[in-house]
Amino acid sequence: MKVKEVADLVGISVRTLHHYDHIGLLTPEETTESGYRIYSDRDLEMLQQVLFFKELGLPLKKIKEIINSPSFDKKEALELHRKMLLEKRSRMDKMIATIDKTIQHSKGEINISDKEKFEGFDFSHNPYEQEARARFGDKAVGESNSKLGKMSKEQIKSMGADFDAIYKDLAAIRHQAPESDEAQAAIKVWYDYLNKIGSYSLDAFKGLGQMYVEDERFTKNIDKYGEGLAVFMRDSMAVYADENRE
Q1: Parent domain of 86
Q2: Is 139 in the same domain as 103?
Q3: Domain HTH merR-type spans what residues (predicted)?
C-alpha cells in the first residue's frame, strides 16, 4: 500500500507517517524507483503496535526503543495492550455509571453520597501535572518574575510583541500534526524563548503544555489566536520534550 492509502485506512495524516519514517520508527520495507513508499503487511502490523503504544501514552522515542528491541514480542505486546485497554474501559464504565447516577440524583429519583459522585475518577494517570505545577509554579515563575522586574517598559513591550509573533506563527500551523518537522521547529522557538526569561526543563515544558488545556484561563487566552491552538501547543510541547531527552 502507498502512504496515502495507509493514511486513509488508519485515519492518520501522511505527514505523520513521513515523520515516523524520518525518525526511524516505521520505515516501509520498499520504495519504488519514483520514490513512493510501499507498506507491506508486516509494516501495517508494526504500525498497529505503534498506535497501540501511543494510545497508552508512551512517547515515540520509548516506542521506538521497545519495538526495535531484540526481546520485543508482538504477542506479548498485544496481551499488554489488551490488559491496559480493559483497565481503561473499566474506568470509563465506572464514570458512565457515575454520570447515570448523577442524572437520576438531579431528577430526585435517587440519592447518592459525596463519595459516589466521584467514582471512576483517577488522576494518577496524569504524571506531569504535579511536577509541572511544582516546577513551573515555583522555580520557573520565580526566575521569570525576577527577570521581568529588572526589565524596562520598552523591554517588556518588546517581549509582548515577541510573544504575539510566536503565537501567531504557531496558530498558522495548528492544523498540522504536532510531530511534524514544521510544528517541532516552531515549538522549539517557544521553548528557547521561555528559557530566556525563566528556567524550563523538558518535563516542566511538557507540564506547562498540559496546563494550557487543563486551566481554562490559559486555554481562553491562547485560543484567541486560533481555536484549538492550546491543544496543538500541548501536543507539540509533549512531542518536543519526549523527543529531546538524552
Answers
A1: 81-118
A2: no
A3: 1-69
